[in-house]
Structure formats: structure tokens, C-alpha cells
Amino acid sequence: MRLARLLFGFLLLALATACGPAKRSDFKATDITGADFGRKLELADHNGVRHTLDDFRGKLVVLFFGYTHCPDVCPTTLADIAAAFKEMKPEDVARVQVLFVSVDPERDTPDLLKQYVPYFHPSFLGMIGTPDEIAVAAKEFRIHYRKHVEPGATDYLVDHTAGSYVLDKEGRLRLFQPFAQPPAEIAHDLILLLRE
Fold this sequence. Notes:
This protein is an alpha+beta fold. It has one domain (about 25-195): Glutaredoxin (3-Layer(aba) Sandwich), CATH 3.40.30.10. Helices cover about 35% and strands about 20% of the residues. It is built from six helices and ten strands. The strands form two sheets. It has an eight-stranded mixed β-sheet with strand order 1-10-9-4-5-6-2-3. Strands 7-8 form a two-stranded antiparallel sheet.
């Protein structure tokens, strides 16, 4: 009887492992499941529609904070995510929403975001808000950004956190993708989360 209970316990453990969330070692990005931040976001998209994270329930959300005048990190990140989409089935891509949150509301108008963000993929949304709204969103996701002026320059750069977050279909923060993660690894992780 004790052996039967023990075997039944092992069977339940195996089933829970097989059907539950992917193991931390299965992801290529950093697994931050259970993080106590990154739960709220309320901004307008580049079409003028206001959104909260709840609007995207049922989809994965890839969230990246950047700006359109960024010379390297932002275009590279958006291009890498778009390249990852090419390695996924169209029906899987349709279940992922990329949100590019501008940390430069002074220059990133809705019209500029509408031209810039969908250039990488038509489903990507640029998100904008007042400086205070952006500050709230950045604090919620522990994003650091600040205006940076090079000596002798006539314009400015914005230093900002370079990684992306991935939220699962329930709106829970799950992964932190570092800058320049290969598209194949991005696709791998998104597919794993979609299969949960």
C-alpha cells in the first residue's frame, strides 16, 4: 500500500511537471516568474487608443522601453523581435503583442511612432503618454532612463534600460530578454510560453 502511494505521488509529480509552466532551465532568456513588479501599464497607442495590460489578455506581451531617435539598441531590438516572428507560425505570431513604450515623449509624437514602430512589423504598437505617465510606467517596470547630451551636440540621446520583458497570456511577468538575444532564442521562448 505504501509503495502504491509512493508510485502515485511520483506519477502526480511527473504529470504536474509535464503539464505545468516551463522549467526555468528551458528558457533562453532570464526567467523572472513571480516578480513583484510590472503588473500595470496604462498608455495610449500610436493610433490614439488607450490600453491597459488587461486589453491584451490571452496574448503574450513583449514590452520594450525605447525611443525613435535611438541610434542602435531600439532598432536592433525591434528588428530582432521581427526576425523571431519569421521563425514562428503565423497563428503563433497572432497571439503575441509587441509594445514599444517611448521614453522620449518630447519628440516621439503619435505620428512619428505610427511611422517608426510598424515599419519593423505591422502588428507592433508604439505606446506614448505624458512625461508623468511614462515615469509611472517606467517605475512600475523598473526601467531607468534619462536624457543625455553629448558635449557640443545639438540634440540629445536618452540612456535607457536595453532589455525587453515578456508577459504571459494571463498578464504575469515571466521573462527578461537581454539586448541582442538571438531571434531564434526569442522565438523559442515565445513558443514555450504560448504552449503553457
